[in-house]
């Protein structure tokens, strides 16, 4: 017979011969053992298939990977127990295995694995073991046998109370008899979930793999937070468990918990790049999924948490990839922006670099308020990020919805380092006007940023006396706000028109008088010199209306010290 010829040629001569209801099994070391046919066939699908292939008249059945010593243990086991005698078999085997040395136990497990005798495998593996046994078992057992045995051993070890022992028994019954695991799904291992939830959360990789063998195991079962086992494995970064679960039949990789989080959200938010990589390679993964309220994708969560490696995985070309330009809500405030906006506004240099290197990134993308990433970097003073964006082609003169450019925003918030960066760009529109007609100089003056004013005033392109829609110069705005250092900075510029007038014909002195800024008024009086009667009267009136007696007195004193020229 061809099968026997091949086996003999490979020195694998284990054959089973049939005599009535008995069959002869020949071990790998050439020893024959007779066993009842029905007993061995009931326990071993491998022997059953060999008998079907070789025919009923065959002299013996070859079992090349099972030695005589192991067959001597197998035969009394199959003779003594029916396949459904699971707990009795476990108890009996525990006693027998206790007297065997470690290597003999491993050889018996290997034989059970080769013969596909699941009851024997479970019975032998159910014995409690110390952790020092594991490395040795790993070296002595085939990979599948080792992982199965470890799963069974962990199931036995963690079933520490009667309730869990009952669940473990249900698992063993399902594994051996192939019956549906619905009772296991319905039984709460803890108050908040099933045994599969618990195993996934605790990184019990061997146990998870064992549970996935159960017919009908619910891989998408929901706990009290509506989380699946995959949610928990992803949350805690258990990449081995995640790999097992995503390969499970029917896995809902995009399942949402009670907060609308998918497993990818969970892994990205907690910075588990290896888990994110596994999930991103799963067919059908929703890489751009938002939460139930339409906010926060896995990418924006990774950016928010400064998880550089996760961002790299999400936008790299070797995975399904994400829409790097997606405009989504980043929190409950309603602000909508891209990941690049968020990273730029937060000053995350490394993440900005990664996002800019991603295929298709729009460096000039607008958020929900028509703001660019450069606007955010400028507003919040992130000069390094602003430089990265400019080098990547960001439009330095792009206006936001209020007409403010990046230079406007940096000047308004007082970030001199960013203003200096903008001034180094040849094409920057130094005198660009926003919707109120204000330049960056106006905004810096109004906010009192004297260091920014000095930078702008020293730039030959700056229109120092530019007027906004109300006719205010930067000096008017600085005087109105009482920023004496800003006023000093502007007065140091030789081109500053101290007596420039607004549309109401007010000078900067009038503005200072109205608002009661004594020090500013003194600076302006000193810079302006003589003032005409009308200007004096107007300034006095404004100071008096505001109740600023000190300014009234100062103006009178100035008038006495500096008599006006007689008009002809």
UniProtKB/TrEMBL annotation:
GO terms for biological process: ubiquitin-dependent protein catabolic process. The keyword Signal applies. The keyword Heme does not apply. Residues 23-78 form the SKP1 component POZ domain. It comes from the Eukaryota. One of its GO terms (cellular component) is cytoplasm. InterPro entries: Ankyrin_rpt, Ankyrin_rpt-contain_sf, SKP1-like, SKP1/BTB/POZ_sf, Skp1_comp_POZ. Keywords: ANK repeat, Repeat, Signal. ANK repeats lie at residues 225-247, 259-280, 335-368, 369-401, 402-424, 436-456, 470-495, 504-536. SMART domains: ANK, Skp1. Pfam families: Ank, Ank_2, Skp1_POZ. Residues 1-17 form the signal peptide. Belongs to the SKP1 family. This is SKP1 component POZ domain-containing protein. It comes from Plasmodiophora brassicae.
């Amino acid at each position: 017979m061809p099968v026997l010829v091949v086996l003999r040629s490979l020195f694998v001569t284990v054959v089973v011969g049939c005599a009535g209801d008995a069959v002869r099994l020949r071990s790998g070391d050439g020893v024959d053992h007779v066993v009842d046919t029905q007993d061995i066939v009931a326990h071993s699908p491998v022997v059953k298939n060999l008998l079907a292939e070789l025919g009923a008249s065959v002299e013996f059945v070859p079992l090349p990977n099972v030695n005589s010593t192991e067959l001597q243990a197998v035969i009394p086991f199959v003779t003594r127990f029916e396949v459904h005698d699971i707990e009795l078999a476990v108890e009996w085997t525990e006693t027998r295995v206790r007297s065997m040395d470690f290597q003999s136990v491993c050889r018996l497990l290997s034989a059970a694995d080769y013969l596909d005798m699941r009851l024997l495998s479970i019975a032998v593996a159910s014995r409690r073991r110390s952790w020092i046994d594991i490395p040795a078992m790993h070296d002595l057992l085939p990979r599948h046998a080792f992982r199965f045995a470890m799963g069974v051993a962990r199931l036995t070890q963690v079933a520490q109370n009667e309730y869990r022992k009952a669940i473990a028994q249900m698992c063993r019954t399902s594994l051996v008899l192939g019956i549906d695991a619905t009772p296991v799904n319905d039984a709460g291992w803890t108050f908040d979930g099933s045994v599969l939830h618990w195993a996934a959360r605790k990184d019990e990789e061997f146990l998870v793999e064992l549970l996935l063998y159960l017919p009908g195991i619910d891989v998408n079962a929901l706990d009290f937070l509506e989380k699946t086992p995959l949610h928990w494995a992803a949350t805690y970064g258990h990449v081995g468990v995640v790999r097992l679960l995503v390969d499970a039949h029917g896995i809902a990789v995009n399942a949402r918990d009670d907060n609308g989080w998918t497993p990818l959200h969970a892994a990205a938010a907690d910075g588990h790049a290896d888990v994110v990589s596994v999930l991103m390679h799963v067919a059908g993964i929703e890489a751009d999924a938002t939460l139930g309220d339409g906010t926060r994708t896995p990418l924006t969560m990774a950016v928010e948490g400064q998880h550089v490696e996760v961002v790299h995985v999400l936008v790299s070309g070797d995975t399904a990839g994400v829409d790097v330009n997606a405009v989504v809500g980043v929190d409950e405030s309603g602000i909508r922006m891209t990941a690049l906006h968020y990273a730029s506004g937060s000053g995350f240099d490394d993440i900005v670099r990664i996002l800019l290197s991603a295929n298709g990134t729009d460096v000039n993308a607008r958020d929900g308020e028509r703001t660019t990433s450069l606007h955010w970097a400028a507003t919040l003073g992130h000069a390094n990020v602003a430089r990265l964006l400019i080098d990547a082609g960001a439009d330095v003169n792009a206006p936001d919805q209020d007409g403010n450019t990046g230079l406007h925003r940096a000047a308004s918030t007082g970030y001199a380092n960013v203003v200096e960066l903008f001034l180094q760009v040849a094409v920057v529109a130094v005198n660009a006007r926003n919707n109120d007609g204000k330049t960056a100089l106006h905004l810096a003056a109004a906010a009192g940023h004297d260091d920014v004013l000095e930078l702008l005033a020293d730039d030959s392109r700056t229109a120092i006396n530019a007027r906004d829609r109300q006719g205010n110069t930067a000096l008017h705005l600085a005087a109105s706000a009482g920023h004496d250092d800003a006023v000093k900075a502007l007065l140091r510029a030789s081109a500053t028109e101290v007596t420039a007038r607004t549309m109401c014909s007010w000078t900067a002195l009038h503005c200072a008088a109205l608002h009661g800024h004594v020090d500013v008024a003194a600076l302006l009086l000193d810079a302006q010199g003589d003032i005409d009667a009308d200007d004096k009267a107007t300034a006095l009136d404004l100071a008096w209306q505001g109740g600023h007696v000190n300014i009234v007195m100062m103006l009178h004193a100035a008038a006495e010290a500096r008599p006006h020229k007689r008009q002809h």
